[in-house]
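agent> Task received from the user: take the single chain below, predict its 3D structure, and emit structure tokens. No templates, no multimer pairing.
agent> Plan: (1) validate residues, (2) run structure prediction, (3) serialize to tokens, (4) report one or two observations.
agent> Step 1 OK, no nonstandard residues flagged.
tool_call: predict_structure(input=
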Amino acid sequence: MTSVHEEISAHSQKQHAHIQSFLALEQKREQAIQTAVAKCERNEPFTTDEINAITSKMNELARGGIVPLRKHVTIDMVSEYAGRKQK
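)
tool_result: status=success, residues=87
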């Protein structure tokens, strides 16, 4: 039989790992967004496939209830952001 303290500790460790995974994915997502924006600004072809693949992984983690959902990104969203950024 495990103690309540051990159960709480295990639960906390699991939540911490969950959050760390989310933060790592968040960083990868931001890098992918910046890459897409930079390509858009240079009028180079780009996709949102990598961004949305990462977003899907983040949203799988979010279903656990600890971290927030993220919106999938469209090409129009990237173009609009790049246009606002250049002004």
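agent> Step 4: summary for the user.
The helical segments are 4-41, 49-62, 75-86.
agent> Done.
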